[in-house]
Amino acid sequence: MKNLPEILEVSDYDNLLAKEADALRRKVYFDEVYLRGLIEFTNFCKNDCYYCGLRISNTNLPRYRLSEEEILSCCKTGYELGLRTFVLQGGEDPYFTDDKICSIISSIKGLYKDVAVTLSIGEKKKESYLAYFKAGADRYLLREESANPLHYSKLHPKNLSSEKRKECLKNLKEIGYQVGAGFMVGSPFQGINEILSDIEFLKQLSPDMIGIGPFVSNPETPFAHYPNGSVEMTLKLISILRILFPHALIPATTSLWTLDPSALEKALKCGANVIMPNITPKRVRDNYRLYPGKTNTEKEAAQTVADLKSIISAAGYRAVSSKGDVRRI
Ligand code: 5AD
Question: Can you identify the CATH homologous superfamily of domain 4-320?
Fold first, then answer.
């Protein structure tokens, strides 16, 4: 690989890089693509991040919460479709106390012995992370968003900090979770140096999962007038991350898909090996609006999974029905 700043200088698609990335992913993960059933169980959020539609100041957004029964019913549907990982994602919603989260986790793990539960519910105390882990949670997704403290402060209100974020990631690792980090590509004020800081941070953290997706401008946020991130740059970064982290689980993310439906197949060819079909009930799915234009809000879970499977095989890969744990080498 040429030197990183040079590669990042130009934003177009880099075929050589993609080839190198694909060869590495095939060495570690063969042609396997893991499906994770995404359950967006609450869109309430106490935070006010400048880029995100779930921000507390967004009074245009109808808010919802799924009950434990509804979440379990999503899992049932997902399990029958062959999904073996459920990702519980939500805003930072104080209604879901640690007890409620633990109860949901242990119910899922009690019903299905061969699934992994991934949480994506933001910053919590170490004790809370520990309680979820003891209840059976296997993985945790918490993007660092930006590893550069100054850049981080331009994307978030004052009560949130890059230091706190990194502390949470460290705690999650110490507890023993498979940890996912990542950042948005093309977020406001991000330049090559900011991307390099994120890559540097990821090298130190050595996460099991790395999620990146283009920033998608949301008219219901203070960043309404900033341009979207580049799909090409995101694809290139997926290849770079695969080369730097051959063992990592790297999803083709929803925001990539939102900006360019054909980018899903491209992302797989650039080194991504995970896709997260949305199995949130249709009734509420449209309201989990981090950004506008999310695709598939009309589809039933079965259709979403079937469509993804055909995209995966058209791209030359194989959707497998397994937990899809990280393979450290
Ligand atoms: N565009 C792209 N990604 C976004 N996220 C939140 N808002 C946006 C947006 N406007 C990402 C954040 C968060 C993840 C769940 O979604 O990186 O961690």
Answer: Aldolase class I (3.20.20.70)
In this prediction, residue 294 has a pLDDT band, given cuts at 50, 70 and 90, of confident
Residue with CA at minimum distance from ligand 1 atom 18: 143
Residue 329 CA to ligand 1 center (angstroms) comes to 30
pTM score of the predicted model: 0.97
> Domain map of the chain by residue range?
4-320
Residue range 204-223: average pLDDT?
Answer: 98
Calculate how far, in angstroms, residue 202's C-alpha sits from the geometric centre of ligand 1: 18
**What pLDDT score does 11 carry?**
66
**Number of the ligand 1 atom closest to the C-alpha atom of 216:** 1
- 52 ligand 1 Cβ < 6 A: yes
- Please determine, for residue 324, whether its predicted confidence score (pLDDT) is greater than 90: yes
CB-CB contact of 152 with 190 (8 Å): no
